[in-house]
Amino acid sequence: MYSPAQARFRGLLAAALMLGASSPTLAIAATPSAPTARAEAQVLSLSQQIIAMRSVVGQGNETGKVAAAIRDALVAGGWSATDVEIVPYKDTAYLIATWKGSDAKLKPLVVSGHMDVVEAKRADWQRDPFVPVVEDGILYGRGATDMKFNAAQAVSSLIDLRRGGYKPKRTIVVAFSGDEETTMETSRQIAQRLKDAELVINVDGGGGKLDEGTGKPVYWTWDGAEKTYADFKLEVTNAGGHSSAPRPDNAIVQLSRALERIGAYHFTAEQNPLTKAWFERAAAFESDAATAAAMRAFAANANDAKALEVLRANPATVGKVGTTCVPTMVSGGHALNALPQRATANINCRIFPGHKPADIMAELAKVASEPAVKFTDVTEGSIASPASPMRDDFVKASEAAIHAAYPGVAVIPAQASGASDSMWYRSVGVAAYGASPTMTKDSEDFSHGLNERVRLSNVRPGLVYFNTLFTRLSQ
Asked: Which residues form the Peptidase M20 dimerisation domain (predicted)?
């Protein structure tokens, strides 16, 4: 026996299969925001198709197959085969698909995302992570939230618009990278190719919160900036010796003193327009009165010591008040009965926009106050990037789009703590915004974790959102 949600989506999938690529174009409602049943079915079918592909770095990487599946969907939806490019790179690939606008003078709108996923092992999961399953209206599988479902939604929306006769003035470019979860080399290459774009909508960012009890939308966020990822290696070396003859210059002790000082250190608290707006608006949805008061106080004064004490003690807010650096790995010594010849540690930093990693590393060296400790930047796959401006065209279009999907839902700008392809666009001067419409309960957010999932109740409102957003920003 199928649940109502399962029955609905099985019906949609059957409809999509019956229509086929060669069937006549379907008529859609007069307003571009109204998606067709065919588009809804395609979101599910394409999501299932690409979730089943193991697009994980290394041997057997199937990111190229994901790109081919998306290409085939676009070509069936009206794109010329010559307008969809798949570029192999090492064991992965990236995709760039172009829907040419009527006004060649307008810079393109980029729809950004990625096709790769983090590793997932069958033994750890309740279900096979690469066999998509729908149960009780929820789609399970690696990439369900990060971010194959979002990719399927965005692609299905564009196909729906094109089949419905929509003609953009501004060229729309779909740009999906193939190694966002690792080295981001294809992300960098794409941004270099598209550095003349007008703006980027990254569907791998932002999103909304559902109430744990009712399942109704609470608020929706978009992000216009992200902190810079950095790894710094700390190393102490000396001659070592017999453990029966200890000396003051013990590599492990010296490194430990440096780590203790770094662990206790707080970087100067900071704000930008995005984080200030987040603290001001998100405070209304904070259930803990003390935290809510601290959020409002910090928004009013970034130097409020009492507010900072509360916010820095909370894992949900500590990363939003400024740069954070924390020891994540440590290694030392070579024998149980010998003085250590070498001790190393890794410090992972999430740097507030506007600072160079080299300056943060220099500040850490000063805090460590151990001349014997050598600091080295060992960061891979990251670059410092400025915050995108709160552009009026994007803000109005995104609010209109999310309100078309979820009338009256609160909208909160944000700054992401994690890394995404957006940093590469921002680093070359292109405004990029993380703006996924997907709504999730906090208890069901398993991105990068076990039993990743997404509610299929997101399908129709997500299409309404994308149809509205894409049409408004491509005129």
From this structure: 225-374
Write out the two tokens for 106: 């307008």
- Name which of 227, 165, 167, 222 is nearest 199 in CA terms: 222
The three-class DSSP label of residue 363 is helix
Question: For 185-232, how does the pLDDT look when each residue is reduced to its tens digit (9 = 90+)?
Answer: 999 999 999 999 999 999 999 999 999 999 999 999 999 999 999 999
Tokens of 118: 């983090």
Classify 451 as helix, strand or coil: coil
Contact 21, 76 (CB under 8 A): yes
Contact 390, 353 (CB under 8 A): no
Helix H segments across 264-343? 273-282, 289-300, 305-312
Cα–Cα distance measured from residue 85 to residue 175, given in angstroms and rounded to the nearest whole number: 10
d(CA 459, CA 47): 11
Residues 186, 101: contact at Cβ < 8 Å? no
Q: Does domain 4-205+420-473 bear CATH number 3.40.630.10?
A: yes
What does DSSP say about strands 217-226 and 172-177: parallel, antiparallel, or unpaired? unpaired
> What sign does the dihedral 134-119-53-223 (CA atoms) show?
positive
Task: For residues 174 and 74, give the distance between their C-alpha atoms in angstroms, rounded to a whole number.
Answer: 10
178-202: buried (b, 16+ CB within 10 Å) or exposed (e) per residue?
A: bbbbbebbbbbbbbeebeebbbbbb
Cβ(77)–Cβ(28) under 8 Å? no
Where are the domains positioned within the chain?
A: 4-205+420-473, 268-322
β-pairing verdict for 241-242 and 338-339:
antiparallel
pLDDT tens, residue by residue, 330-383: 999 999 999 999 999 999 999 999 999 999 999 999 999 999 999 999 999 899
100 in Cβ contact with 109 (< 8 Å): no
Distance, CA of 402 to CA of 466 (rounded, Å): 9
